[in-house]
Recover the amino acids of this structure.
């Protein structure tokens, strides 16, 4: 049953990934991206990563896709690109490049499967202590520096966006004076 | 529930990554290119979580957590830059955004 579920979800995920690329309307692409993120969240559930599945839905589906849709509609860029035909020489070359990349990654996967040491993050431990508690204890002990750096990164991002928005307001005010 | 082999997940994420890379190469719309970069990041996330499950290690999940934070910042700044560019040049096509070209 798990394998059938895997193949059905994989099909949905790949079709929606192609939908992102091959839709002319950017809004439809964003909705295909939403489906893609949703199936990924189900994969995370199947892989026993419930916390990250919920975070995936909250952050990606809830914030990022909505931000994309917001900007697309704000810019009125729904049909930004006129594509006369997909079967050009250039696109054929790029698809061949993509196939080469896929072959390389696939070979790397099959040649270098890690059969290494097993950690202590087992399903039994998760059942006993709870997933969020275990991830939190690792995050705040071994990876606390990375956690704080992510905090710095988020503040830098917020400051950068506020600065960009302020430039916009300033140049609009200057435009009104002239 | 039967266990799905780890190589299936790895191949699936390789396919997703390749589709994303192909989208970055084929499309010229900046918003779609950003979406494809997100798709590639998600493919890497799937690999991390698959290995975290099959090696019983929490490190992969921590990495995914960090990648999600970075992706959120990247999308926010990328879209802010896009809005700014659109105000100045009325362009969403990457071929039209070439003012920095020497």
């Amino acid at each position: 049953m798990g394998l059938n579920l895997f193949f059905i979800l994989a099909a949905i995920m790949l079709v929606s990934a192609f939908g992102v690329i091959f839709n002319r309307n950017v809004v439809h692409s964003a909705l295909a991206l939403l489906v893609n993120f949703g199936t990924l969240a189900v994969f995370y559930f199947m892989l026993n990563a419930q916390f990250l599945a919920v975070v995936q839905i909250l952050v990606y589906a809830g914030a990022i896709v909505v931000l994309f849709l917001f900007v697309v509609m704000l810019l009125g860029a729904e049909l930004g690109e006129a594509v006369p035909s997909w079967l050009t020489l250039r696109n054929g070359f790029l698809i061949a490049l993509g196939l080469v990349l896929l072959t390389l990654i696939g070979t790397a996967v099959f040649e270098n499967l890690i059969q290494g040491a097993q950690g202590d993050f087992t399903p039994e431990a998760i059942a006993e202590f709870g997933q969020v508690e275990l991830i939190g204890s690792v995050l705040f002990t071994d990876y606390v520096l990375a956690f704080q750096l992510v905090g710095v990164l988020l503040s830098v991002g917020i400051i950068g966006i506020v600065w960009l928005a302020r430039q916009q307001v300033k140049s609009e005010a200057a435009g009104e004076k002239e | 529930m039967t266990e799905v082999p780890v190589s299936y997940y790895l191949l699936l994420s390789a396919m997703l990554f390749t589709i994303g890379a192909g989208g970055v190469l084929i499309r010229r719309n900046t918003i779609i290119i950003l979406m494809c970069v997100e798709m590639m990041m998600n493919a890497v996330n799937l690999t991390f979580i698959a290995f975290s499950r099959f090696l019983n290690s929490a490190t992969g999940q921590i990495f995914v957590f960090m990648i999600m934070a970075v992706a959120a910042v990247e999308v926010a700044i990328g879209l802010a830059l896009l809005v700014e560019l659109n105000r100045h040049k009325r362009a969403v096509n990457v071929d039209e955004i070439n003012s920095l070209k020497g």
Summary: Helices of chain A lie at 2-22, 26-46, 50-75, 89-111, 123-129, 131-139, 144-177. Chain A touches chain B through 80 residues (CB under 8 Å).
